[in-house]
């Protein structure tokens, strides 16, 4: 396993990502996945709104953007899987290189920009899944959509995925789609939330809706938006997305690392957001994500108010064995 991860690290991050996930898929097809990655941890289920999360650890959005790897990720033992972010139209994202590893700091900077195959493709993948655990679908807007069209994008995705989603997460916090984070301000989130609330009613979607937040907003902004999340009867928040603040990252070159930072250096900031939300809106469900890399940082998320936790970057650095490490 160590050799495999070291070899993958010699490739470009996006190539390594694709090879690793396709290898998992192949192992799953050959029914060998649990021979390589036996999951021998205890599952203690968590129940929310009629959903049974087999355990409290999930894979965060962005790893499987198009729903191509749901069954193999499910076989590794995650308690829930979130796919996306998906947009109405397929889009290729920003130009490469756009993912950067900082191995010694267990960090990643990415500026992918919602590269995805579009919502119709994802729905077909989701329909074909065999995985029976909790599946969240994360929705966003196309890069070229502006004004009302941007809200319409969320609604189109919502309508298309709602028959198949155990929960829907609304991503207003990617730093790589210009202007997306402006949905944290009242004049922008009110029309979006209103449209989502109406669509939830018209689609009779009674499963949870979570709003995924940025760790880079002011406290007052977070207090205002989380109060609205509660008043619109949405179910909770995902805290957090990546940060654009890089003061915690040690960089030795002058290369352009604009984009969102994830992994270990994000832990403190995402925990601060999580705790702020928890203190202000204790009854909202919180999914804690950002910087979890060992048992201690995993447990810390629950102390800060999370009921569920997700990982992304530590899965890239440690592979599937991180699941056992966190859940033991
Ligand atoms: C390469 C990469 C791509 C990501 N893509 C998405 C995405 O499409 N949608 C989203 O909501 N979050 C995305 N994220 C953010 C993660 O879901 C997560 O919130 C963030 O990485 C913090 O968790 P971590 O420190 O465990 O990685 C992405 C993160 C990375 C590293």
Short description:
By secondary structure, the protein is α/β, with parallel strands linked by helices. It has twelve helices and 13 strands. Helix content is 38%, strand content 17%.
CATH architecture: Alpha-Beta Barrel
Pick out the low-confidence regions: none
Helix content: 25-40%
What is the 3D form?
Answer: globular
Report the total helices: 12
Q: Order of helices and strands, N to C?
A: HHHEEEHEEEHEHEHEHEEHEHEHH
Q: Could you tell me the mean pLDDT?
A: 94
Q: In percent terms, what proportion of residues is strand?
A: 15-25%
CATH class: Alpha Beta
CA(first)-CA(last) distance:
19 Å
Descriptive notes:
The protein has one domain: TIM Barrel. It has helices spanning 2-9, 13-29, 33-36, 70-75, 119-127, 148-161, 186-202, 219-231, 267-280, 295-303, 313-318, 321-327, and strands at 46-48, 51-53, 57-59, 80-86, 99-102, 107-110, 134-139, 167-171, 209-213, 236-239, 260-263, 285-289, 308-311. The strands form three sheets. An eight-stranded parallel β-barrel has the order 3-4-7-8-9-10-12-13, surrounded by five helices. The protein has a three-stranded antiparallel sheet with strand order 5-6-11, with no helix packed on it. The two termini are 19 Å apart. The protein contains twelve helices and 13 strands. The chain is globular, with a radius of gyration of 18 Å. Helix 10 (295-303) links the parallel strand 12 (285-289) and strand 13. 38% of the residues lie in helices and 17% in strands. It is of the alpha/beta class and 328 residues long. The site of flavin mononucleotide (FMN) has 26 residues, from strand 6, strand 11 and helix 11.
